[in-house]
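Consider today's protein:

***
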Amino acid sequence: MWAAAVAATLVGVTLPTVAATPASATTTAYDTTYYKDAIGKTGTSLKSSLHTIISSQSKISYDAVWNALKVTDQDPNNTNNVILLYSGVSRSKSLNGGSVGDWNREHTWAQSHGNFGTSAGPGTDLHHLRACDVQVNSTRGNKDWDNGGSPVSGAPGAYTDSDSFEPRDADKGDVARMILYMAVRYEGDDGWPDLEPNESSTNGSVPFHGRLSILKQWNQQDPPSAFEERRNDVIYNTYQHNRNPFIDHPEWIEAIW
């Protein structure tokens, strides 16, 4: 699947959305070093190994997230701007704040799903924090993930209803890989809640996010982009010194869930 998607992109062909397991695994420069204890594993064994690997990380404050996002989410075509999640808009780095027209810090794994707040840990983990338009962020709120609903103002291609949010196609895989990173990184063994995906779209304050089946489809539909890969590298090299394994190995999502 992943090889086919790459080949299709090269010739300008758009593949249909499928939910099949990828036909072949990816390989990265980190397989013999960073991921060496995870290679060849599947299921709970793979999840446990990845948890051990990625739990070794540096933490930053919530205030420090502002400047970090200016680097991790930088527009590759304009270094003065960041690219906003859900809308794809390029906006000045200086317009960070809480007013209309600003961008703020979006927790893709909603803070209320586990009540972890903004303390250093899941509340400041850059692997799921993204720059986002203030109003679009408010529309998403703490909703679970699913397909369908009404169009979202300010985010063409995104939809929402009373309990779920569907990002535009270009962000679907990003969201899936961020959410499932959180489910592997935070297993309840370091003072934070055990975050897990499920099939509910009404999770409220419990430490779960749905819907897993939809997230798996989005991971297949929207493979990792150059923007995601650069972002993973910047977080690893400059800030947290851990990686999102599902950007490096998107097929591991099917291998675990």
User: Anything to note?
Assistant: The chain has a mean pLDDT of 92. The CA atoms of residues 69 and 131 lie 6 Å apart. The longest strand covers residues 78-83.
